[in-house]
Specification:
Strand content: 15-25%
CATH architecture of one domain: 3-Layer(aba) Sandwich
Strand order of the largest sheet: 11-8-7-6-12-13-14
Distance between the termini: 34 Å
Largest sheet: 7 strands, mixed
Structural class: alpha/beta
CATH class of one domain: Alpha Beta
Number of strands: 14
Bound molecules: nicotinamide-adenine-dinucleotide
Length: 429
């Protein structure tokens, strides 16, 4: 199955518990619009390289579409569409007035220079200018894009528009209209949800062991939050491999310090890896997922937990900070084993929530303090968690299906408010 078919099957599962119009089903099963563009970039050696970029607006029933831009060698239109699909449901889970979108460029950003990276990022905006905008579609960072890139993109957008337009992108540097708290928002949102779940399950205060796949924005920051409380981070990994420990726990700040000390590629990506650590046991990314722990946090890329490794997962809770890390086949195996999977559309929704705050602040020209941002984020995340947990308990379904039921109800209300077949035929809906 393609990643998009996997994503759609999660929605199909929720539909088994719902009675919604055929109109709404048909609208939600396909994307609204997709655009692919060639992005020509003048390379440092004088040659021209043409990169392929995509942007997908999956559904905009609740507002302008919103979603990150990914730079990765494996980016495809199918992946971007799947990520835009998840954004649609994620925004509805946290009740923010956005639809779902996503973008990507097929590139290994670590193999191009800083100047080439800037030209590519500005080229992306030139190619997609008519497809994005504060009231249309608002991009943000994702894998291998960061606030520096968002700053270049906002600058390019403003130049073409001939007007300062900070609300066109989120995840910007503070000096270019970013929001306090945005850089840690994805992890903090997931952390709030995890704490509430641990409390509900009566597991708190037990020095719970955590393994985290991916040591970037999402993985590193949640490792810090967990380490600062009573949790023990005993496994970490990045694209080069992982490290585990049995009798002690890692200090994520120290591990990141060592990774940073190896220097940066073009001032944007780290040369070092957690796998450089000499004093700890080395494992592959797959072994890390199967590590003996209480909580497993995939925070890298899609399709990491499959039917092959799901039977060997030992964690009691999986918190999906990455988008789509568990395949539908694996989901069934994990459910049978009694493992609770906190789905991506809730677990990592803190990022888009604070992106929304950033957009609101940009439009108001009035900026909030960090504690105000965190308080609002906590309210939204904990409220969504409570409501979804109740649905799970009442419907006796998985956490993921409960989250889809919750989100779908909101989106469908907006679709059906414009009229359905039943409405136009004189029936009630
Ligand atoms: P990032 O680029 O900051 O970090 C990605 C990390 O994953 C890096 O440590 C990288 O080495 C590692 N990685 C890449 N390929 C890997 C592989 N095959 N196996 C193991 N590790 C691998 O990206 P990020 O922003 O932290 O995003 C991580 C995930 O979180 C993605 O799925 C993204 O869509 C999701 N997410 C991020 C945000 C956000 O605000 N940053 C919001 C919502 C969801």
């Amino acid at each position: 199955m393609s990643t998009f078919e996997n994503a759609n099957s999660q929605f199909e599962e929720a539909l088994k518990y719902m009675d919604i119009s055929q109109d709404a089903k048909d609208i939600l099963k396909a994307s609204k619009e997709e655009m692919t563009a060639s992005i020509p970039v003048r390379m440092d050696d004088g040659s021209l390289k043409v990169f392929e970029g995509h942007r997908v607006h999956y559904n905009d029933s609740l507002g302008p579409t919103k979603g990150g831009i990914r730079y990765h060698p494996d980016v495809t239109l199918d992946e971007v569409k799947s990520l835009a699909f998840w954004m649609t449901f994620k925004c509805a889970v946290v009740g923010i007035p956005y639809g779902g979108g996503k973008g990507g460029v097929t590139v290994n950003p670590k193999e191009i220079s800083k100047q080439e990276l800037e030209r590519l990022s500005r080229g992306y905006v030139q190619a997609f200018y008519d497809f994005i905008g504060p009231d249309k579609d608002i991009p943000a960072p994702d894998v291998y894009t960061n606030e520096t890139i968002m700053g270049w993109m906002t600058d390019e957008y403003s130049k073409i528009a001939r007007a300062y337009t900070p609300a066109a992108f989120t995840g910007k540097p503070l000096s270019l209209g970013g929001s306090q708290g945005r850089s840690v928002a994805t992890s903090l949102g997931g952390f709030y949800v995890l704490k509430d779940l641990v409390k509900k399950l009566g597991m708190e205060g037990k020095g719970l062991k955590v393994a985290i796949q991916g040591f970037g924005n999402a993985g590193y920051n949640i490792a810090r939050f967990l380490h600062d409380e009573e949790y023990r981070v005993i496994g970490l990994s990045d694209s080069k491999g992982g490290i585990v420990c049995k009798d002690y726990c890692f200090d994520p700040v120290k591990i990141m310090g060592a990774k940073k000390s190896k220097g940066m590629i073009d001032g944007v990506y780290y040369k070092g890896t957690v796998h450089d650590e000499k004093d700890h046991e080395h494992v592959s990314n797959n072994e890390l997922l199967e590590t003996d722990c209480d909580i497993l946090i995939p925070a890298a890329i899609e399709n990491q937990i499959t039917e092959k490794n799901a039977p060997k997962i030992k964690a009691k809770i999986i918190l999906e900070l990455a988008n789509g890390p568990v395949t539908p086949e694996a989901d069934k195996i994990l459910a049978d084993k009694g493992i609770i999977v906190v789905p991506d559309i809730l677990a990592n929704a803190g990022g888009v929530t604070v992106s929304y705050f950033e957009w609101v602040q940009n439009r108001q020209g009035y900026y909030w303090a960090e504690n105000e941002v965190f308080e609002k984020l906590q309210n939204i995340m904990c409220n969504a968690f409570q409501n979804i947990y109740s649905i799970m308990t009442v419907k006796k379904c998985t956490f993921r299906t409960a989250a889809y039921i919750y989100a779908t109800t909101r989106i469908v209300e907006a679709i059906e408010a414009k009229g359905t077949k039943e409405f136009f035929n004189g029936n009630s809906k």
